[in-house]
Design brief:
This protein has 140 residues and is an alpha+beta fold. The protein has a single domain (11-135), classed as Nucleoside Triphosphate Pyrophosphohydrolase. The chain is built from 2 helices and 9 strands; from the N terminus they run ββββαβββββα. It has helices at 53-65, 128-135; strands at 11-21, 24-29, 40-41, 44-46, 68-70, 74-81, 87-95, 97-99, 109-113. Strands 1, 2, 3, 4, 6, 7 and 9 form a 7-stranded mixed β-sheet that branches. It has a two-stranded antiparallel sheet with strand order 5-8. Strand 6 (74-81) and strand 7 (87-95) form a beta hairpin.
């Protein structure tokens, strides 16, 4: 595990998968030991240097959920500045096909949620506008 370093002025590039199955979306809850503990998010992670966004997401979904995902279209790209000065660029991709059974390898909890129910979860700040759009039936 590499130490997370977030300094002001550094843009952290992150990819996340909006995994859809039978009209529901997979949401994941962080453990109490992670930064922003117990917040809900879409699975994914940091893009490593020299890595393509889709490759990064494929790798992260395998590490976190044990699946080989087929990464679909990018459905949203947004930037978020946290109060500590760290800025993150998030790219969200739809994932409708994958091999393997989803297993919870790192999260406190996993839930399949109807898009309209997403606002009832305490999501990461950075995901707020995406959650609103998904709940309103936009994007996918």
């Amino acid at each position: 595990m590499k130490a997370a370093h977030s300094g002001a002025g550094i843009m952290k590039r992150v990819v996340a998968g909006v995994i859809e199955k039978d009209g529901k979306l997979l949401v994941c809850q962080r453990t109490k030991h992670q930064t922003m503990p117990l917040k809900w998010e879409f699975p994914g992670g940091k893009i490593e240097t020299g890595e393509q966004p889709r490759d990064a997401l494929r790798r992260e979904l395998e590490e976190e959920l044990g699946i080989q995902a087929r990464i679909g279209d990018e459905i949203a790209r947004l930037q978020h500045a946290y109060p500590n000065g760290a800025t993150v660029e998030l790219r969200f991709y739809i994932v409708r096909e994958y091999e393997g059974e989803i297993e919870n390898r790192i999260f406190r909890d996993l839930q399949w949620s109807a898009p309209g129910d997403l606002p009832s979860y305490d999501f990461l700040e950075a995901d707020a506008s995406l959650v609103k759009d998904l709940a309103a039936g936009r994007l996918i």
